[in-house]
Give the backbone structure.
Amino acid sequence: MNYNLKIIYASHEFKADYERKTKMAEIDVDFKDKLSSQKHPEFEYNVWGEFAPPEKLGIHGDNVAVDFDICIADGVCIEVCPEEVFEWAEYAGNPASDKKAAPVNQDRCIECLACETDCPVVAIKIFEL
Ligand code: SF4
């Protein structure tokens, strides 16, 4: 493959990867009516939907809910949250990203909505308690 073709191929690969990461649906705000839940094996919150790491991770949390299959580990939620609700959790091998913003301190949420508003892939939904 000549140099120009390699560049074109690489740019197509980059575009395809970007589209794969961003084309996913936003978090389904009605997920609690549609999915069953189970306690996370490590954290004090529920996981909704299929939890089969690393491929399928489901939606994590209750009043602060993060769709781990959409999360691309942008990290803006961790940056903007004034209550340190989120911590990184490693999920190497997940198609969207190798780490996720886990709402491990969801009980601290003051419903400011900063994370929900700023998440670039709309992976977060905040529920009033
Ligand atoms: S709504 Fe505000 S306090 Fe609650 S998790 Fe999001 S950024 Fe943190």
Residues 85 and 105 are 4 Å apart (CA to CA).
